[in-house]
Specification:
Layout lengths: L25 H14 L4 E3 L9 E7 L13 E26 L2 E20 L5 E7 H14 L10 H5 L2 H20 L1
Antiparallel strand pairs: 1-2, 2-3, 3-4, 4-5
Zinc ion (ZN) binds next to helix 2.
Length: 187
């Protein structure tokens, strides 16, 4: 089932997500989140982005680097369900790259600084412990998704002058997020 994606301005995106203790609902949630992510042409999606304050994200590894929103479908090499993650920085070298976010549609910004190599410790959808080392683009994706669980957005890593260029679009998203929440309440 494709889930509605929460927009910039929705308080759930600024709420620290809770650890998962009961894994019984996770396989279905993960399947829905992957379906939602592919439908939106994303490379990663965190549970707060579908309104759930739980420490879960999904992401996919493609055979080529793809930008969110790109039209030509890249081949999916692997897809991952990440629960209760912990991030270890392996290489402190900071690299800059372009990022976008499904909760901040149509805004792509260059120069987002991130450590180049990380190790991700997590549980899969069945609660089994996993660990993997990631670099460059994939390291960026998991750091971006991990930040969602910590209530952070990639915009937080950018100087105010860069954000000012997008102020009007961001203000519109905040209004849309408010309208969506109002609609949700009435249901
Ligand atoms: Zn995002």
């Amino acid at each position: 089932m494709v889930l509605p994606i929460r927009l910039y301005g929705d308080p759930v995106l600024r709420t620290k997500a809770r650890p998962v203790k009961d894994f019984s609902t996770i396989p279905q949630l993960a399947a829905d989140m992957l379906e939602t992510m592919y439908e939106a042409k994303g490379v990663g999606l965190a549970a707060p982005q579908v309104g759930l304050s739980q420490r879960v994200f999904v992401w996919a590894e493609y055979d080529d680097e793809v930008e969110e929103g790109e039209d030509s479908p890249a081949k999916i090499l692997n897809e991952y369900v990440v629960v209760n993650p912990c991030l270890e920085i392996i290489e402190k070298t900071i690299v800059e790259g372009t990022e976008g976010c499904l909760s901040i549609p149509s805004i792509y910004i260059e120069g987002v600084p991130r450590p180049r190599v990380v190790r991700l410790h997590y549980q899969n959808e069945r609660g089994e412990p996993q660990s993997m080392e990631l670099e460059d683009f994939n390291a960026r994706v998991v750091q971006h998704e991990f930040d969602h669980l910590e209530s952070k957005l990639f915009l937080d890593l950018l100087p105010r002058s860069v954000l000012d260029e997008h102020r009007a679009e961001l203000a519109k998203m905040q209004r849309d997020a408010k309208a969506f929440l109002k609609e949700l309440k009435q249901k």
